[in-house]
Amino acid sequence: MRNKISVLTIMMIVFAALWIQSCDTSNKKTKKDPTKIKVSGSMVAELTAPPLVPKPVGNREATKLIVNMEIIEKEGTMADGVSYMYWTFGGTVPGSFIRTRVGDEVEFHLKNHPDNKLPHNIDLHSVTGPGGGAASSFVAPGHEVVFSFKVLNEGLYVYHCATAPVGMHIANGMYGLILVEPEGGLPPVDKEYYIMQGDFYTKGANGERGLQPFDMTKAVKEQPDYVVFNGSVGALGGEKGINAKVGETVRLFVGNGGPNLVSSFHVIGEIFDKVYIEGGSAVNENIQTTLIPAGGSAIVDFKVEVPGNLVLVDHSIFRAFNKGALGILKVTGEEDKTLYSGKQYEEVYHPEGGTIQTMPEDSAAKPHPQAVTLEERIAEGKSIYASTCFACHQAEGGGIAKTFPPLAKSDYLNADVNRAIDIVLRGKTGEITVNGEKYNSVMTAQTLKDEEVANVLTYIYHSWGNSKKEVTPAMVSAIRNKK
Questions:
Q1: Within 13 Å of residue 467, how many CA atoms lie on the same side as its CB?
Q2: Would the N or C end of the chain have less CB density within 10 A of its end CB?
Q3: Is the entire prediction scored with pTM above 0.85?
Q4: Do residues 106 and 69 lie in contact, with contact meaning Cβ atoms separated by under 8 Å?
Q5: Mean pLDDT in the chain?
Q6: Core vs surface per residue 119-137: b (16+ CB within 10 A) or e
Q7: CA–CA distance from 125 to each of 34, 152, 155, 159, 263 (Å)?
């Protein structure tokens, strides 16, 4: 009897396991073999410049997709007063965004503008084939090459130039993103944007004015002067910032062209509801910061519930506030005090005393070039502002609401020039009122020379509707030496 029960029990367990397995298999959606997907018709691909993306593919059938892309070598602005000779796909850094779906057959037309100096090619990480297309796409100035490929794997992929020296071509801005959507498309959202980080290496130091050539020595040592979103300092700031409304869902297609640094991508004041890890199919949820390798990507989705300026950064934080990896997502709409109250009260708390922390000055630092005329002082000050003040006070001096006070048309600034000098030299903590609004944050003491303080304050006073005062090094020296 025991043996019969034992055998019967085993048979029942095996039958149950087979039944569960068959149910599980029947519930799974069978994906088509992408190599067997037949295309229907043809269409010219919509290409967009950052931060915009083409419209979603939706439910369209796989098709023959014709991509027309032109390589353009052009001078552009890296930062205020600093220009750079970019090499680009489509005239922008990053290059034009390409949107496809699994099974598309892409006919790629790569054109090298006749005014360019160098040959180039393209390596698309979405391509299954030699060099990701690089072996078939080497093209001289004034020529066009055509090659084709079938997209087999869904995901968000980097493309870049792969002409030797590869690192130099990438470092000059030759990278972009190509999206391969699954059949039926990605889940819909309200807003989509295209952001790509890159590190740049210039002969001059950060903020040094003029046309700056590429520095191979710094690139090999992985010591960038600029780390930026979308090709330049401030490309996602001020009027160039991206926008959303309270309650909307936002999707960011984020890439990292490198050529060297890994990005710690973070949005200050938001949490990613979903992250498509490394741009693939796996999804993680409730993420604060996501790593994006050089030559990699991520798709991040989140809903914005609170109005204000959300700050996009590489959380390797000196890159954000000192080298340019910073942008703004401006969210408008009604406040909900149950979600975020703002400051409710304040009291004095000084366990370590009331002193402001300062850094020792570098005695070996090189003196900044002396400005002679008012115009030179303003020009030099603009460059210092871009590398020192931009992150907190923004490109147009508007500040960040409820956090950093505005410098534009500032009654507090214009009322007392000596006080302004003192704040730059020694810092400021505690509550102040600017243009009728209260602010309570910390302005740290700046390690600037007298000439630099005079220049940047003169620029600020001559910008954004301020009083047009000129600050001189002698004025700064007098305040510095005042007990």
A1: 13
A2: C
A3: no
A4: no
A5: 89
A6: ebbbbbbbbeeeebbbebb
A7: 17, 11, 10, 6, 18
**DSSP codes, 333-394:** S---TTT-----------TT-SPPP-PPP-TTPPPPPPP-SHHHHHHHHHHHHHHHTHHHH-
Q: Is the pLDDT of residue 77 over 70?
A: yes
**What percent of the chain is modeled with pLDDT above 90?**
74
Tell me the C-alpha distance between 170 and 258, whole Å. 7
Please give the C-alpha separations between residue 406 and each of 277, 322, 397, 447, 479, in angstroms, as whole numbers.
38, 20, 6, 21, 23
| DSSP letter assigned to residue 397 | S
Which residue shows structure tokens 């944007």?
193
- Bridge partners (DSSP) of residue 202 are 214
Structure tokens at 418: 């000596």
**203 exposure class (CB count in 10 Å sphere: 0-12, 13-18, 19+):** middle
Rounded to a whole number of angstroms, the CA Rg of the chain reads 27
The residues that bridge with 419 in the sheet, in sequence order, are none
Sheet holding 226-229, edge to edge: 226-229, 191-200, 249-258, 296-303, 272-276, 283-287
1 — pLDDT class (breaks 50, 70, 90)? very low
Tens-digit pLDDT profile for residues 382-391: 988 887 887 7
User: Which residue is listed with tokens 């005239």?
Assistant: 91
The DSSP line for 418-461 is HHHHHHHHH-EEEEEEETTEEEEEEEPPP---HHHHHHHHHHHH
Instruction: Report pLDDT for 157.
Output: 98
**CA 235: distance to chain centroid?**
8
Better pLDDT: 4 or 398:
398
301's tokens: 């989705």
Using DSSP's 3-state secondary structure scheme, residue 313 falls into strand
- Rounded Cα distance, 68 and 54, in Å: 14
Alpha carbon 73 to chain centroid, angstroms: 22
Q: How confident is the model over 314-331, as pLDDT tens digits?
A: 999 999 999 999 999 999
User: Cis before residue 369, ω within 30 degrees of 0?
Assistant: no
